[in-house]
Specification:
alpha+beta, single chain, BirA Bifunctional Protein, domain 2, binds histidyl-adenosine monophosphate, 20% strand, eight-stranded mixed sheet, five-stranded mixed sheet
Protein backbone atom coordinates (compact mmCIF):
# COMPACT_ATOMS: atom_id res chain seq x y z
CA UNK A 1 0.00 0.00 0.00
CA UNK A 2 1.26 3.50 -0.81
CA UNK A 3 2.72 5.09 2.30
CA UNK A 4 0.67 8.19 1.63
CA UNK A 5 -2.48 6.15 2.25
CA UNK A 6 -1.38 4.62 5.53
CA UNK A 7 -2.62 5.79 8.91
CA UNK A 8 -1.16 9.04 10.23
CA UNK A 9 2.02 8.48 12.25
CA UNK A 10 1.29 8.00 15.93
CA UNK A 11 -2.36 7.11 15.26
CA UNK A 12 -3.20 3.42 15.47
CA UNK A 13 -5.85 1.05 14.26
CA UNK A 14 -7.32 -1.29 16.84
CA UNK A 15 -7.86 -4.68 15.24
CA UNK A 16 -10.76 -6.81 16.53
CA UNK A 17 -8.84 -8.62 19.27
CA UNK A 18 -7.37 -5.38 20.64
CA UNK A 19 -10.67 -3.57 20.21
CA UNK A 20 -12.38 -6.28 22.26
CA UNK A 21 -9.83 -5.78 25.04
CA UNK A 22 -10.39 -2.03 24.86
CA UNK A 23 -14.15 -2.52 25.18
CA UNK A 24 -13.75 -4.87 28.13
CA UNK A 25 -11.47 -2.43 29.91
CA UNK A 26 -13.83 0.49 29.39
CA UNK A 27 -16.79 -1.70 30.31
CA UNK A 28 -15.17 -2.79 33.54
CA UNK A 29 -14.10 0.73 34.49
CA UNK A 30 -17.62 1.97 33.72
CA UNK A 31 -19.03 -0.69 36.09
CA UNK A 32 -16.60 0.27 38.83
CA UNK A 33 -17.31 3.97 38.39
CA UNK A 34 -21.05 3.35 38.56
CA UNK A 35 -20.44 1.70 41.94
CA UNK A 36 -18.84 4.97 43.11
CA UNK A 37 -21.71 7.06 41.74
CA UNK A 38 -20.02 8.52 38.65
CA UNK A 39 -22.11 9.17 35.53
CA UNK A 40 -20.82 9.23 31.97
CA UNK A 41 -20.36 12.45 30.05
CA UNK A 42 -19.71 12.51 26.31
CA UNK A 43 -18.37 15.70 24.78
CA UNK A 44 -17.27 16.47 21.19
CA UNK A 45 -13.68 15.79 20.14
CA UNK A 46 -13.44 19.35 18.78
CA UNK A 47 -13.56 22.43 20.97
CA UNK A 48 -12.67 26.06 20.48
CA UNK A 49 -8.89 26.49 20.76
CA UNK A 50 -9.33 29.19 23.38
CA UNK A 51 -10.81 26.69 25.82
CA UNK A 52 -7.57 24.70 25.93
CA UNK A 53 -5.32 27.76 25.96
CA UNK A 54 -7.18 29.15 28.95
CA UNK A 55 -7.38 25.93 30.93
CA UNK A 56 -4.18 23.98 30.18
CA UNK A 57 -2.09 27.16 30.06
CA UNK A 58 -0.25 29.09 27.38
CA UNK A 59 3.24 28.13 28.54
CA UNK A 60 2.67 24.36 28.65
CA UNK A 61 4.10 21.87 26.16
CA UNK A 62 0.60 20.88 25.13
CA UNK A 63 -0.52 24.38 24.17
CA UNK A 64 2.87 25.54 22.90
CA UNK A 65 3.50 22.73 20.49
CA UNK A 66 1.28 19.68 20.73
CA UNK A 67 -2.23 20.73 19.74
CA UNK A 68 -3.87 19.83 16.45
CA UNK A 69 -5.33 23.23 15.69
CA UNK A 70 -6.93 24.45 12.48
CA UNK A 71 -9.10 27.29 11.27
CA UNK A 72 -12.65 26.41 10.32
CA UNK A 73 -12.74 27.90 6.84
CA UNK A 74 -16.48 28.49 7.03
CA UNK A 75 -16.35 31.00 9.86
CA UNK A 76 -12.70 31.63 10.63
CA UNK A 77 -12.96 30.06 14.09
CA UNK A 78 -9.87 28.38 15.52
CA UNK A 79 -10.69 24.81 16.58
CA UNK A 80 -8.58 22.15 18.29
CA UNK A 81 -8.83 18.38 18.58
CA UNK A 82 -9.03 17.83 22.33
CA UNK A 83 -5.63 17.06 23.87
CA UNK A 84 -7.30 16.07 27.17
CA UNK A 85 -10.76 15.86 28.70
CA UNK A 86 -10.89 18.07 31.79
CA UNK A 87 -11.33 21.35 29.91
CA UNK A 88 -14.32 20.08 27.94
CA UNK A 89 -15.83 18.50 31.04
CA UNK A 90 -15.72 21.80 32.93
CA UNK A 91 -17.06 23.62 29.87
CA UNK A 92 -19.99 21.20 29.59
CA UNK A 93 -20.74 21.39 33.32
CA UNK A 94 -20.89 25.19 33.12
CA UNK A 95 -22.77 25.28 29.84
CA UNK A 96 -25.49 22.98 31.17
CA UNK A 97 -25.51 24.47 34.63
CA UNK A 98 -24.93 21.08 36.24
CA UNK A 99 -22.91 22.02 39.22
CA UNK A 100 -24.82 24.39 41.43
CA UNK A 101 -27.75 22.22 42.47
CA UNK A 102 -25.52 19.40 43.57
CA UNK A 103 -21.92 18.36 43.16
CA UNK A 104 -21.15 16.21 40.15
CA UNK A 105 -19.26 12.96 39.74
CA UNK A 106 -18.55 12.41 36.03
CA UNK A 107 -16.41 10.23 33.79
CA UNK A 108 -15.64 10.14 30.08
CA UNK A 109 -13.71 7.99 27.66
CA UNK A 110 -12.35 8.47 24.19
CA UNK A 111 -9.59 9.67 21.91
CA UNK A 112 -7.30 12.58 22.75
CA UNK A 113 -4.81 14.15 20.36
CA UNK A 114 -1.32 15.48 21.01
CA UNK A 115 1.36 16.14 18.43
CA UNK A 116 4.13 14.46 20.42
CA UNK A 117 7.06 12.43 19.12
CA UNK A 118 5.59 8.93 18.89
CA UNK A 119 7.31 6.10 20.76
CA UNK A 120 6.21 3.03 22.69
CA UNK A 121 3.39 4.15 24.97
CA UNK A 122 3.23 7.64 23.48
CA UNK A 123 0.90 8.26 20.59
CA UNK A 124 -0.60 11.20 18.74
CA UNK A 125 -4.07 9.79 19.03
CA UNK A 126 -4.36 8.03 22.35
CA UNK A 127 -7.28 7.19 24.58
CA UNK A 128 -8.15 8.14 28.10
CA UNK A 129 -10.73 7.31 30.69
CA UNK A 130 -11.14 10.48 32.71
CA UNK A 131 -12.85 10.89 36.07
CA UNK A 132 -13.88 14.29 37.43
CA UNK A 133 -15.64 15.36 40.62
CA UNK A 134 -16.84 18.96 40.80
CA UNK A 135 -18.12 20.76 43.87
CA UNK A 136 -16.17 18.77 46.49
CA UNK A 137 -13.64 20.54 48.70
CA UNK A 138 -12.23 17.99 51.11
CA UNK A 139 -9.42 15.50 50.66
CA UNK A 140 -11.99 12.70 50.95
CA UNK A 141 -12.77 13.05 47.24
CA UNK A 142 -9.06 12.98 46.34
CA UNK A 143 -8.78 9.78 48.37
CA UNK A 144 -11.90 8.34 46.74
CA UNK A 145 -10.42 8.84 43.28
CA UNK A 146 -7.13 7.29 44.30
CA UNK A 147 -9.07 4.35 45.74
CA UNK A 148 -10.80 3.93 42.38
CA UNK A 149 -7.39 3.64 40.75
CA UNK A 150 -6.18 1.17 43.37
CA UNK A 151 -9.29 -0.97 42.86
CA UNK A 152 -8.80 -0.99 39.09
CA UNK A 153 -5.16 -2.10 39.38
CA UNK A 154 -6.24 -4.88 41.75
CA UNK A 155 -9.00 -5.99 39.39
CA UNK A 156 -6.55 -6.01 36.50
CA UNK A 157 -3.91 -7.88 38.50
CA UNK A 158 -1.30 -5.15 38.04
CA UNK A 159 -1.30 -3.75 41.59
CA UNK A 160 2.18 -5.12 42.21
CA UNK A 161 3.57 -3.21 39.25
CA UNK A 162 2.34 0.29 39.98
CA UNK A 163 3.13 2.74 42.72
CA UNK A 164 1.43 5.92 43.78
CA UNK A 165 3.27 9.22 43.91
CA UNK A 166 1.61 12.22 45.50
CA UNK A 167 2.48 15.86 46.03
CA UNK A 168 0.79 19.12 46.95
CA UNK A 169 1.12 22.28 44.89
CA UNK A 170 -0.47 24.44 47.59
CA UNK A 171 -2.60 27.48 46.87
CA UNK A 172 -1.95 30.30 44.41
CA UNK A 173 -0.13 32.50 46.95
CA UNK A 174 2.19 29.68 48.04
CA UNK A 175 2.92 28.90 44.41
CA UNK A 176 3.64 32.54 43.58
CA UNK A 177 6.03 32.90 46.54
CA UNK A 178 7.76 29.65 45.68
CA UNK A 179 7.99 30.64 42.05
CA UNK A 180 9.88 33.83 42.96
CA UNK A 181 12.33 31.86 45.08
CA UNK A 182 12.73 29.19 42.43
CA UNK A 183 13.42 31.65 39.62
CA UNK A 184 16.01 33.44 41.76
CA UNK A 185 17.69 30.10 42.56
CA UNK A 186 17.70 28.98 38.91
CA UNK A 187 18.92 32.36 37.70
CA UNK A 188 21.83 32.13 40.09
CA UNK A 189 22.75 28.85 38.34
CA UNK A 190 21.85 29.86 34.82
CA UNK A 191 24.98 28.26 33.34
CA UNK A 192 23.68 24.83 34.40
CA UNK A 193 20.31 25.17 32.66
CA UNK A 194 19.74 23.39 29.36
CA UNK A 195 18.08 25.30 26.52
CA UNK A 196 14.62 24.01 27.42
CA UNK A 197 15.01 25.15 31.01
CA UNK A 198 16.35 28.54 29.89
CA UNK A 199 13.26 28.98 27.75
CA UNK A 200 10.97 28.05 30.65
CA UNK A 201 12.78 30.03 33.30
CA UNK A 202 10.24 32.81 33.32
CA UNK A 203 7.25 31.25 31.58
CA UNK A 204 6.91 27.98 33.52
CA UNK A 205 9.78 27.47 35.99
CA UNK A 206 7.96 24.76 37.95
CA UNK A 207 8.18 22.48 34.92
CA UNK A 208 11.98 22.69 35.03
CA UNK A 209 11.76 20.54 38.16
CA UNK A 210 10.23 17.84 36.01
CA UNK A 211 13.26 17.71 33.68
CA UNK A 212 14.76 14.28 33.06
CA UNK A 213 18.12 15.78 31.99
CA UNK A 214 20.75 14.07 34.23
CA UNK A 215 23.03 17.10 33.86
CA UNK A 216 20.49 19.15 35.82
CA UNK A 217 19.63 16.49 38.42
CA UNK A 218 21.83 17.96 41.15
CA UNK A 219 20.61 21.49 40.50
CA UNK A 220 17.03 20.30 40.70
CA UNK A 221 17.65 18.30 43.87
CA UNK A 222 18.85 21.46 45.61
CA UNK A 223 16.00 23.69 44.41
CA UNK A 224 13.58 25.24 46.91
CA UNK A 225 10.64 22.90 47.41
CA UNK A 226 7.08 24.08 47.13
CA UNK A 227 6.11 21.30 49.54
CA UNK A 228 8.13 23.00 52.30
CA UNK A 229 6.28 26.27 51.76
CA UNK A 230 2.69 25.13 51.69
CA UNK A 231 -0.03 27.36 53.10
CA UNK A 232 -1.62 25.97 56.28
CA UNK A 233 -4.87 24.89 54.63
CA UNK A 234 -3.12 23.03 51.83
CA UNK A 235 -0.82 21.35 54.35
CA UNK A 236 -3.85 20.21 56.38
CA UNK A 237 -5.54 19.00 53.19
CA UNK A 238 -2.46 17.01 52.27
CA UNK A 239 -2.31 15.50 55.77
CA UNK A 240 -5.96 14.54 55.50
CA UNK A 241 -5.32 12.81 52.19
CA UNK A 242 -2.42 10.82 53.57
CA UNK A 243 -4.46 9.73 56.56
CA UNK A 244 -7.32 8.58 54.30
CA UNK A 245 -4.91 6.64 52.11
CA UNK A 246 -3.33 4.99 55.13
CA UNK A 247 -6.77 4.06 56.44
CA UNK A 248 -7.59 2.54 53.05
CA UNK A 249 -4.34 0.57 53.05
CA UNK A 250 -3.03 2.33 49.96
CA UNK A 251 0.72 2.85 49.86
CA UNK A 252 2.07 6.20 48.69
CA UNK A 253 5.29 8.12 48.39
CA UNK A 254 5.57 11.89 48.36
CA UNK A 255 7.41 13.09 45.28
CA UNK A 256 8.12 16.79 45.83
CA UNK A 257 9.15 17.10 42.15
CA UNK A 258 5.78 16.00 40.87
CA UNK A 259 4.38 19.11 39.17
CA UNK A 260 2.25 17.83 36.22
CA UNK A 261 2.25 19.31 32.74
CA UNK A 262 -1.00 21.25 32.86
CA UNK A 263 -1.41 24.60 34.59
CA UNK A 264 -4.80 24.15 36.23
CA UNK A 265 -3.66 22.10 39.23
CA UNK A 266 -3.44 23.18 42.85
CA UNK A 267 -3.05 21.26 46.11
CA UNK A 268 -3.14 17.48 45.53
CA UNK A 269 -1.47 16.06 42.44
CA UNK A 270 -0.82 12.36 41.95
CA UNK A 271 0.50 9.86 39.45
CA UNK A 272 0.39 6.08 39.23
CA UNK A 273 3.67 4.97 37.72
CA UNK A 274 5.25 1.71 36.64
CA UNK A 275 8.77 0.67 35.72
CA UNK A 276 7.47 -2.02 33.39
CA UNK A 277 6.69 0.17 30.38
CA UNK A 278 9.98 1.96 29.78
CA UNK A 279 10.06 5.73 29.49
CA UNK A 280 6.28 6.21 29.34
CA UNK A 281 5.62 4.81 32.80
CA UNK A 282 2.79 7.04 34.00
CA UNK A 283 -0.39 5.06 33.48
CA UNK A 284 -2.73 7.41 35.29
CA UNK A 285 -2.50 10.95 36.65
CA UNK A 286 -4.51 13.80 38.05
CA UNK A 287 -5.14 16.14 40.92
CA UNK A 288 -7.18 19.06 42.17
CA UNK A 289 -8.13 22.06 40.06
CA UNK A 290 -10.07 24.25 42.46
CA UNK A 291 -9.64 27.42 40.39
CA UNK A 292 -10.72 26.19 36.97
CA UNK A 293 -14.49 26.56 37.19
CA UNK A 294 -14.12 30.17 38.33
CA UNK A 295 -11.47 30.82 35.72
CA UNK A 296 -13.89 29.77 32.97
CA UNK A 297 -16.50 32.20 34.26
CA UNK A 298 -18.51 30.00 36.63
CA UNK A 299 -19.19 30.56 40.31
CA UNK A 300 -16.01 29.11 41.85
CA UNK A 301 -16.28 25.44 42.72
CA UNK A 302 -13.55 23.08 43.91
CA UNK A 303 -12.79 20.01 41.81
CA UNK A 304 -10.56 16.98 41.48
CA UNK A 305 -9.97 14.44 38.74
CA UNK A 306 -7.65 12.06 36.97
CA UNK A 307 -7.25 10.29 33.67
CA UNK A 308 -5.77 6.93 32.84
CA UNK A 309 -4.07 6.21 29.55
CA UNK A 310 -5.92 3.27 28.03
CA UNK A 311 -3.02 2.13 25.80
CA UNK A 312 -0.63 2.11 28.74
CA UNK A 313 -3.02 0.30 31.07
CA UNK A 314 -3.78 -2.28 28.38
CA UNK A 315 -0.07 -2.82 27.80
CA UNK A 316 0.56 -3.33 31.51
CA UNK A 317 -2.49 -5.55 31.93
CA UNK A 318 -1.54 -7.70 28.93
CA UNK A 319 -2.04 -10.91 30.91
CA UNK A 320 -5.19 -9.84 32.72
CA UNK A 321 -7.98 -12.38 32.50
CA UNK A 322 -10.41 -9.50 32.95
CA UNK A 323 -9.57 -8.22 29.49
CA UNK A 324 -9.84 -11.81 28.29
CA UNK A 325 -8.83 -13.49 25.11
CA UNK A 326 -10.55 -13.05 21.77
CA UNK A 327 -14.17 -14.15 21.90
CA UNK A 328 -15.00 -17.14 19.75
CA UNK A 329 -18.37 -18.06 18.32
CA UNK A 330 -20.36 -20.89 19.84
CA UNK A 331 -20.93 -22.35 16.39
CA UNK A 332 -19.98 -21.96 12.74
CA UNK A 333 -22.72 -22.92 10.34
CA UNK A 334 -21.78 -24.66 7.08
CA UNK A 335 -24.36 -25.46 4.45
CA UNK A 336 -24.80 -26.54 0.85
CA UNK A 337 -27.72 -26.01 -1.50
CA UNK A 338 -30.45 -23.37 -1.72
CA UNK A 339 -32.83 -24.88 0.81
CA UNK A 340 -29.96 -25.49 3.25
CA UNK A 341 -28.85 -21.86 2.89
CA UNK A 342 -32.31 -20.62 3.82
CA UNK A 343 -32.56 -23.01 6.77
CA UNK A 344 -29.04 -22.00 7.91
CA UNK A 345 -29.99 -18.33 8.04
CA UNK A 346 -33.16 -19.12 9.98
CA UNK A 347 -31.41 -21.42 12.48
CA UNK A 348 -28.62 -18.88 13.05
CA UNK A 349 -31.09 -16.08 13.70
CA UNK A 350 -32.94 -18.22 16.25
CA UNK A 351 -29.70 -19.03 18.07
CA UNK A 352 -28.59 -15.38 18.08
CA UNK A 353 -31.97 -14.52 19.51
CA UNK A 354 -31.06 -16.84 22.39
CA UNK A 355 -27.82 -14.92 22.98
CA UNK A 356 -25.45 -17.30 21.19
CA UNK A 357 -22.73 -16.10 18.81
CA UNK A 358 -23.12 -17.93 15.50
CA UNK A 359 -21.22 -17.32 12.27
CA UNK A 360 -22.86 -18.43 9.04
CA UNK A 361 -20.52 -19.43 6.23
CA UNK A 362 -20.91 -17.05 3.30
CA UNK A 363 -19.57 -17.42 -0.21
CA UNK A 364 -20.28 -21.10 -0.96
CA UNK A 365 -17.52 -23.64 -1.55
CA UNK A 366 -17.07 -27.32 -0.87
CA UNK A 367 -17.96 -28.75 2.55
CA UNK A 368 -14.31 -29.52 3.28
CA UNK A 369 -13.28 -25.91 2.65
CA UNK A 370 -16.17 -24.65 4.74
CA UNK A 371 -15.17 -26.98 7.58
CA UNK A 372 -11.63 -25.58 7.47
CA UNK A 373 -13.12 -22.13 7.96
CA UNK A 374 -15.24 -23.43 10.82
CA UNK A 375 -12.14 -24.79 12.47
CA UNK A 376 -10.17 -21.57 11.95
CA UNK A 377 -12.99 -19.51 13.47
CA UNK A 378 -12.31 -21.07 16.87
CA UNK A 379 -15.99 -22.07 17.19
CA UNK A 380 -16.81 -24.83 19.63
CA UNK A 381 -19.18 -26.54 17.18
CA UNK A 382 -19.89 -26.78 13.49
CA UNK A 383 -23.54 -26.91 12.56
CA UNK A 384 -23.85 -28.71 9.25
CA UNK A 385 -26.84 -28.45 6.94
CA UNK A 386 -26.61 -30.41 3.71
CA UNK A 387 -29.34 -31.04 1.18
CA UNK A 388 -30.31 -34.18 3.05
CA UNK A 389 -30.66 -32.36 6.39
CA UNK A 390 -32.53 -29.47 4.74
CA UNK A 391 -35.03 -31.86 3.18
CA UNK A 392 -35.73 -33.41 6.60
CA UNK A 393 -35.70 -30.12 8.50
CA UNK A 394 -32.78 -31.31 10.65
CA UNK A 395 -29.25 -30.11 11.38
CA UNK A 396 -26.04 -31.94 12.24
CA UNK A 397 -23.93 -30.82 15.17
CA UNK A 398 -20.22 -31.62 15.26
CA UNK A 399 -17.94 -30.73 18.18
CA UNK A 400 -14.75 -29.10 16.93
CA UNK A 401 -12.72 -28.73 20.12
CA UNK A 402 -13.36 -31.99 21.91
CA UNK A 403 -14.00 -35.55 20.88
CA UNK A 404 -17.60 -36.55 20.33
CA UNK A 405 -19.79 -37.89 17.62
CA UNK A 406 -21.54 -35.80 15.03
CA UNK A 407 -25.27 -36.09 15.69
CA UNK A 408 -28.47 -35.01 14.00
CA UNK A 409 -31.08 -33.03 15.85
CA UNK A 410 -33.95 -30.63 15.30
CA UNK A 411 -33.18 -26.89 15.14
CA UNK A 412 -35.22 -26.48 18.33
CA UNK A 413 -32.91 -28.82 20.26
CA UNK A 414 -29.82 -26.86 19.24
CA UNK A 415 -29.96 -24.19 21.94
CA UNK A 416 -29.71 -26.70 24.71
CA UNK A 417 -27.06 -28.72 22.90
CA UNK A 418 -24.88 -25.64 22.43
CA UNK A 419 -24.94 -24.80 26.11
CA UNK A 420 -24.88 -21.46 27.84
CA UNK A 421 -24.96 -18.32 25.75
CA UNK A 422 -21.64 -16.54 25.30
CA UNK A 423 -21.08 -13.66 27.69
CA UNK A 424 -22.16 -10.44 26.00
CA UNK A 425 -19.20 -8.25 25.01
CA UNK A 426 -18.55 -5.75 27.78
P1 LIG B 1 -2.16 13.86 31.57
O1 LIG B 1 -1.14 13.54 32.59
O2 LIG B 1 -1.77 14.79 30.49
O3 LIG B 1 -3.42 14.42 32.36
O4 LIG B 1 -2.68 12.52 30.91
C1 LIG B 1 -3.20 11.47 31.70
C2 LIG B 1 -2.69 10.12 31.20
O5 LIG B 1 -2.96 9.96 29.80
C3 LIG B 1 -1.19 9.95 31.30
O6 LIG B 1 -0.82 9.56 32.60
C4 LIG B 1 -0.93 8.85 30.30
O7 LIG B 1 -1.23 7.58 30.86
C5 LIG B 1 -1.95 9.16 29.22
N1 LIG B 1 -1.30 9.89 28.11
C6 LIG B 1 -1.02 11.21 28.04
N2 LIG B 1 -0.43 11.51 26.87
C7 LIG B 1 -0.32 10.35 26.17
C8 LIG B 1 0.19 10.00 24.88
N3 LIG B 1 0.70 10.91 24.06
N4 LIG B 1 0.12 8.70 24.50
C9 LIG B 1 -0.41 7.76 25.32
N5 LIG B 1 -0.93 8.04 26.54
C10 LIG B 1 -0.88 9.31 26.97
C11 LIG B 1 -4.57 14.81 31.76
O8 LIG B 1 -4.84 14.64 30.60
C12 LIG B 1 -5.55 15.41 32.74
N6 LIG B 1 -6.75 15.85 31.98
C13 LIG B 1 -5.92 14.42 33.83
C14 LIG B 1 -6.91 15.01 34.79
C15 LIG B 1 -8.24 14.81 34.82
N7 LIG B 1 -6.62 15.86 35.75
C16 LIG B 1 -7.73 16.21 36.37
N8 LIG B 1 -8.72 15.60 35.79
Amino acid sequence: MAESLQAVRGMNDLLPEQAARYRRLVGHVADVLARYGYGELRTPVLERTELFVRTIGEATDIVEKEMYTFVDTLNGESLTLRPEGTAACVRAVLQHNLIYGSPQRLWYEGPMFRHERPQKGRYRQFHQIGVEALGFLGPDIDAEQIMIGARLWRDLGIEGQVRLEINSLGDAAARAAHRGELVAYLEAHRELLDSDAQRRLHSNPLRILDSKNPAMAELIAGAPRLLDRLDAESAAHFDGLRRSLDAAGIGWTVNPRLVRGLDYYNRTVFEWVTDALGAQGTICAGGRYDGLVGQLGGRPAPACGFALGIERVMALAEQSSLLGSASVPAAYLVHQGDAAGLLAARVAETLRGEGLAVVVHCGGGKFAAQMRRADASGARYAIIIGEDEAARGLVSLKPLRESGEQRQLTPEALVQALGAPCAPAA
